[in-house]
Amino acid sequence: MAASSMKDIKLRIKSVESTMQITKAMELVASSKLQRAKERAERTRPYFTTLHETLCDIAYANTDFSSPFVKAREVKKSCFVIVAGDRGLAGGYNSNVFKKAASEMEGKNVCVVPIGKKALEYCKSRGYEILSADFPLAEAMDTSECFALSRMLCKAYCEGKFDELYLVYTNFVSMLSQQPAALKVLPIRYEKSAAKDNVRALMQYAPSSEAVYNAIVPEYVGGLLYGAMAESIASEMGARRTAMDAASKNAGEMIEDLSLKYNRARQGAITQEITEIVAGAEA
């Protein structure tokens, strides 16, 4: 009986050791990708910040300014771009994004653009109207795809296919902290401050300020999408690194506990053998 118990414990130890090797490898891969993803996220932030300031300056400087991208209209349908991961084993990264998206979409007539394999699976399982399923791999998204998606979304918005656009992604705060966020992209909202009420148009745009503004908006939305992708990928790598580190530590604790049980079972078996030998000698 003791031999059988020892064999089971030994097999269990080998199984946990194999799992620990996998979690360690995944932790190392996530760590190597995390630094690059973090640097990319930090580099993208100034891009769409500058674009947003430019858009606001154009709107402030033109009293007769009118653009379909700033006009608020009755909301009949909302579009949500949901950015999630391509794989699991990243702690609560994917589930937190989906909870945020579900809370924002509650009570609304929505269509979605999922980015990432997990986002596509989630939207299909919930039966949402999918506007485009051409972006199943989040990690493979580059700038050209982000701007192609931006142009498609802006065109659909102008055609009235939806009346507002939201971007749901994960904001990279630090190596250990990632926060899901929902950003309203369209219509673009800005509030005039008292300091800018008397701003005069000091720059002329050809053919018009409205045409230039409408041409910049898709670039601005593309910049937001690319920035959100960079933030989300960095967040996914950070979450996976943390999750795999915790899994490796748990596996190590399990191995220690199983090794203690194995040694106790082995000691019990040796004691039983000695007792049987002594009893046989006395007989």
TrEMBL record:
Key words, A-Z: ATP synthesis, Cell membrane, CF(1), Hydrogen ion transport, Ion transport, Membrane, Transport
Where in the cell does this protein reside? Cell membrane; Membrane
Molecular functions (GO terms) = ATP binding; proton-transporting ATP synthase activity, rotational mechanism
Cite a single Pfam family from the UniProt record: ATP-synt
Q: Which residues form the signal peptide?
A: none
Per the record, membrane topology reads: Peripheral membrane protein
What SUPFAM superfamilies does the database record attribute to this sequence?
ATP synthase (F1-ATPase), gamma subunit
Single GO BP term? proton motive force-driven plasma membrane ATP synthesis
One GO term of the cellular component aspect? plasma membrane
Q: Which InterPro entries match?
A: ATP_synth_F1_ATPase_gsu (IPR035968), ATP_synth_F1_gsu (IPR000131), ATP_synth_F1_gsu_CS (IPR023632)
Q: How does it assemble?
A: F-type ATPases have 2 components, CF(1) - the catalytic core - and CF(0) - the membrane proton channel. CF(1) has five subunits: alpha(3), beta(3), gamma(1), delta(1), epsilon(1). CF(0) has three main subunits: a, b and c.
What does it do?
A: Produces ATP from ADP in the presence of a proton gradient across the membrane. The gamma chain is believed to be important in regulating ATPase activity and the flow of protons through the CF(0) complex.
Family (UniProt): Belongs to the ATPase gamma chain family.
* The name this protein goes by in its record: ATP synthase gamma chain
The source organism is Candidatus Ruthenibacterium merdavium
